[in-house]
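Progress note, sequence design subtask.
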């Protein structure tokens, strides 16, 4: 009850009654847990949780537009178990701030027009613009426990189409910060037709689950409660313009431009893409890089326009090409004059689909799919398939021989001479890699699809335990050969890893920390180093605790930078939030600076990448210290290295040092799974 006593004293007289009431409700409510290890409420005192009942759910019960244009909506506010909440925060903890939008889809159109608007005047240009917004100045009437009728100040126009779809959008927050339970956000939408007929027209192009592949939980405008695409499109309509920049805030245009960011033709030509928002805050999206890993990553439309989410208009990108959406990415096209459009003016959207079919006969044509084909993912590539059959001569001091197969995806044999790059890597031990040897296997001997290669360098004399062998390779393939669009493309195989013992012990794979599927949720198809390396199990063989960028970093740029996987990946994803400069020198002594990386999700959601609670402490015994010449600590302990990847300040490093002795790191004493400051608990939201 200590936390409860420290909370606002005005609650103390009713604590006992409310706790009993909540406890009784729990007994008859569903038994599935409401909170997960990602939520602060999961770790809170059960008595506090029973009293506060954190969370917020909104249900729109009904809506109407009276003959005089008066708009009313009946809503219910509850906790996640369905118990009513007091909007004013008097009878139940935490005041609820709610806002309402109403918009309609006019007949024959596909986008919303909002009734709730405001006039925004720019102090920069002096221009004014009408913008869709939430209603202000409406009235509340309490009609039951947790139930209210909200009457809009805004009235519907007298000539509204009462047979058209109308949508009420509600967004709200419940402030529980006085209980150290954060601010809980929620939004909901309610479709209806004012004349009482069934809703037949909806706008449903992209579902939140597609956005949340990268964004965790799609929210905007701080802690107001605006969440999800359906809520966004009620205000981000074609009618809404930023008067400071003249840029439209139409969702389809704005989102395409934001995600293409740095690669917009206009940005490349020197014109930044900026929007100016609340309190004249400037949002510059000119350095946004779409995280899908290809030269022109925004070709992969289906990263967002996923076909299998159940969205009613999931194929809109294929079947409804239009100047606004297409011109948002291709913003060097002038549809009025025809510049950048084969010199053909396009005065309306009526005939866009006449040339831009969903799919043509060839890739890279002007069909929607063809024009957005990623060369590396072309269906015309024959593909490369590897298999490691065996490895022998694997004792310390011996030169191992590897037997492997090379095929295309049809099963036809390939030979090393058909590859531009073909290499084998051995590394060990898998308890924590510290040594790797990579050699070209282009000289491998054999026939058909089966080849052997013997390493020139031996396994180290002091090698022990389990080691790994992996294969990488790529071919150069011509697509559309003999045409004016002929191109040469890398056709790379998926890395294959095989584990073997160097001392007769049972082979044991390296520990799994993250899952490739988690990486690919945002990155599409992870591949590095010229598409050669694409499996996490392979990445960690070289990006080990001992490795730095010494082989590529110029002497004048010393000291070297660690490329240990845990340290490097945390620092890359923390990018713009780091307190220090972070640059790695890569192939050809090319510097790669990551301080402009903006992680699109919640950086404190460790489970977005990690699997099996691998972020929890303590880590397994026997892990190596990490070489970090540019860090505060060098070497740095394996647990500290992971944490200092994101928490890179001097105080954080000092904290890590103070909790490290000759016996090792004591991080788990405070940050272990059941401790007050466990990793999951301090990262909870």
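Output:
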């Amino acid at each position: 009850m200590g936390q409860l006593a420290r909370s606002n004293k005005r609650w103390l007289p009713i604590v006992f009654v409310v706790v009993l009431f909540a406890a009784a409700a729990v007994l008859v409510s569903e038994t599935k847990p409401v909170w997960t290890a990602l939520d602060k409420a999961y770790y809170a005192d059960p008595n506090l949780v029973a009293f506060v009942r954190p969370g917020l759910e909104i249900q729109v019960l009904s809506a109407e537009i009276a003959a005089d244009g008066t708009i009313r909506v009946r809503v219910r506010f509850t906790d996640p178990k369905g118990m009513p909440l007091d909007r004013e925060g008097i009878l139940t903890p935490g005041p609820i701030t709610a806002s309402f939008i109403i918009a309609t889809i006019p007949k024959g159109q596909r986008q919303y027009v909002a009734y709730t608007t405001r006039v925004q005047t720019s102090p920069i240009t002096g221009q004014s613009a009408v913008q869709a917004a939430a209603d202000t100045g409406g009235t509340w009437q309490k009609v039951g426990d947790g139930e209210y009728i909200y009457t809009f100040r805004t009235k519907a126009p007298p000539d509204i189409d009462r047979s058209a779809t109308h949508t009420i959008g509600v967004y709200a927050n419940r402030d529980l910060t006085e209980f150290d339970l954060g601010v809980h956000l929620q939004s909901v939408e309610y479709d209806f037709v004012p004349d009482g007929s069934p809703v037949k027209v909806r706008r449903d192009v992209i579902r939140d689950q597609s956005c949340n592949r990268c964004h965790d939980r799609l929210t905007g405008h701080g802690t107001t409660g605006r969440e999800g695409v359906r809520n966004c499109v009620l205000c981000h309509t074609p009618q809404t313009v930023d008067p400071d920049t003249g840029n439209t805030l139409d969702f389809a245009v704005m989102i395409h431009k934001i995600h293409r960011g740095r690669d917009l033709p206009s940005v490349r030509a020197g014109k930044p893409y900026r929007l100016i928002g609340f309190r004249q805050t400037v949002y510059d999206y000119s350095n946004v890089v779409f995280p899908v890993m290809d030269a022109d990553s925004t070709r992969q439309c289906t990263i967002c326009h996923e076909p299998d989410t159940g969205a009613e208009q999931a194929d809109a990108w294929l079947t409804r090409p239009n100047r606004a959406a297409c011109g948002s990415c291709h913003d060097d096209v002038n549809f009025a004059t025809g510049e950048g459009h084969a010199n053909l003016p396009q005065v309306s959207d009526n005939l866009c689909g006449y040339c831009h079919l969903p799919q043509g006969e060839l890739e890279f044509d002007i069909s929607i799919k063809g024009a957005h084909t990623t060369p590396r993912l072309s269906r015309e590539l024959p593909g490369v398939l590897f298999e490691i059959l065996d490895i022998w001569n694997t004792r310390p001091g011996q030169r191992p021989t590897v037997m492997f197969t090379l095929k295309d995806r049809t099963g036809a044999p390939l030979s090393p001479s058909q590859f531009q790059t073909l290499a084998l890597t051995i590394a060990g031990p898998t308890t924590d890699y510290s040594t790797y040897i990579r050699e070209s296997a282009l000289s491998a001997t054999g026939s058909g699809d089966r080849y052997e290669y013997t390493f020139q360098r031996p396994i180290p004399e002091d090698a022990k335990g389990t080691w790994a062998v992996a294969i990488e390779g790529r071919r150069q393939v011509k697509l559309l050969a003999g045409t004016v669009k002929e191109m040469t493309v890398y056709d790379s195989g998926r890395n294959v890893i095989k584990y073997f013992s160097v001392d007769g012990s049972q082979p044991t794979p390296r520990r799994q920390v993250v899952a490739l599927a988690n990486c690919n949720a945002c990155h599409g198809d992870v591949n590095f180093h010229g598409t050669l390396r694409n499996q996490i199990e392979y990445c960690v063989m070289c990006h080990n605790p001992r490795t730095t960028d010494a082989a590529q970093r110029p002497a004048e740029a010393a000291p070297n930078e660690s490329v240990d996987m845990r340290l490097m990946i945390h620092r890359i994803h923390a990018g713009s939030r780091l307190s220090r400069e972070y640059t790695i020198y890569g192939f050809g002594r090319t510097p790669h600076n990551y301080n402009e990386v903006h992680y699109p999700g919640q950086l404190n959601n460790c489970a977005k990448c990690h699997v099996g609670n691998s972020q929890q402490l303590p880590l397994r015994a026997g892990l190596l210290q990490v070489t970090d010449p540019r860090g505060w600590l060098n070497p740095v302990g394996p647990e500290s290295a992971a944490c200092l990847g994101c928490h890179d300040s001097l105080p954080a490093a000092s904290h890590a040092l103070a909790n490290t002795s000759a016996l090792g790191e004591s991080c788990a004493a405070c940050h272990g799974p059941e401790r007050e400051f466990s990793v999951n608990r301090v990262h909870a939201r």
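The chain has four domains: 56-239, 250-373, 385-538, 546-682. Work on this subtask will continue into the next period as scheduled.
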